[in-house]
Design brief:
alpha/beta; Rossmann fold; 3-stranded antiparallel beta sheet; 17 helices; about 10% strand; binds adenosine-3'-5'-diphosphate
């Protein structure tokens, strides 16, 4: 690791060997270790520092929509909604079958490339790079496959990120539109636990209790959770910020789509909104889920837990928490949520 400071002003602090060994008992980490970015405490693979300044200085356009979430908050659902609203409201776009990774690239994805499990199994970003090279033959892989895919993806670009506002271009809200999705952190924890088991990148083998405690301790990739939500919540009244709860979408998707239609200025007709609801429903998205790739996903876990489109419900946390753990998490949520002034349903 060469960088000590990022353009965003964060100080890069390498995680200690002791911390890495402790965390690695339950999951796979990264060839080059992990870092925290201070003072916020963001926890990422060290490789993030190769791309951080590029992302911070990324040139946004007024037509861009940046979809920002803490992982497992319903990102993919919103990503498909945004792409369908802005590119495919009549459901006739020839690229609609392509992976969302290509249609709506994740700007921070390059940092995951040295995940030990992926390196061992030979997972590369090669196919994505080929996609990039078809449009831009002069691109170099080391400059970041996903960050460059974000540059060249057709307008209006829908850029996904799990990064917080403090690591994104400082003019983001003056330039682009931001959609932020938040979900009850209890359900986020459960969904993330299954994801960490399911994805070979993490190969999580610990208990749910350990996982939930790691989440509350900010010891999981993309943590800490609260400052991420807080930074977006503070901007919820900005005209270019649209803050949505997963639970509200579950309760009344049409009403949420109408709000989005106004926010995006998409002017979709009722028929087009109906198309979007149908095309992005849980059952419809699940039916289009690609066959699990053995080197990316763990097939056995996938079978038992239901895959990426696992349940898509509210309140599955009730089947996972012991009374003691529930109490601990309630306290964690109440303290942090009241400090921010946000309440989850
Ligand atoms: P569960 O694991 O609780 O089922 P993300 O996209 O941020 O990784 O979030 C994944 C979660 O969103 C998963 O939650 C997944 O099932 C849920 N999800 C994905 N598509 C959905 C849809 N169309 N409707 C409702 N939930 C959806």
């Amino acid at each position: 690791m060469n960088k000590k400071h990022l353009c965003s002003g964060h100080e890069v602090v390498a995680m200690s060997e002791e911390w890495l060994a402790r965390i690695e008992k339950d999951q796979k980490l990264y060839t080059h270790g992990m870092v925290r970015l201070m003072p916020d405490g963001w926890l990422y693979p060290t490789t993030f520092t190769n791309f951080a300044d590029k992302i911070y200085n990324f040139k946004l356009k007024s037509s861009d929509v940046v979809l920002m979430t803490a992982p497992k908050s319903g990102t993919t659902w919103m990503q498909e909604i945004l792409w369908t609203m802005l590119h495919n409201p009549d459901l006739i776009h020839p690229d609609a079958h392509k992976s969302l990774l290509i249609r709506s690239p994740q700007i921070d994805f390059d940092m995951l490339q040295d995940g030990k499990a992926w390196v061992e199994k030979g997972v590369s970003m090669g196919d994505m790079f080929e996609e990039l090279r078809q449009t831009c033959p002069d691109k170099k892989r080391e400059d970041g496959v996903f960050v460059q895919l974000c540059e060249v993806t057709p307008d209006p670009r829908i850029i996904k990120t799990h990064l917080p506002l403090s690591l994104l271009p400082p003019d983001i809200l003056d330039t682009a539109k931001v959609v932020y999705v938040a979900r009850n952190p209890r359900d986020v924890t459960v969904s993330m636990y299954h994801h960490f088991q399911h994805l070979n990148l993490h190969s999580y083998t610990g208990t749910f209790e350990n996982f939930a405690k790691s989440f509350m301790n900010n010891d999981l990739l993309y943590c800490p959770y609260w400052p991420h939500v807080k930074m977006a919540w503070e901007k919820k009244d900005h005209p270019n910020m649209h803050f949505v709860f997963y639970e509200d979408k579950k309760a009344d998707i049409m009403s949420e789509l109408r709000k989005l239609n106004d926010f995006l200025g998409a002017n979709l007709t009722q028929q087009q909104l109906d198309n979007v609801v149908h095309h992005t429903s849980f059952s419809s998205m699940k039916s289009r889920e690609r066959e699990a790739d053995d080197i990316v996903f763990n097939k056995d876990v996938r079978k038992s837990s239901g895959g990426f489109f696992r349940k898509g419900t509210i309140g599955d946390w009730r089947t996972h928490f012991s009374p003691e753990l529930e109490q601990e998490m309630n306290h964690w949520i109440e303290t942090n949520a009241s400090e921010i002034g946000i309440s989850f349903k």
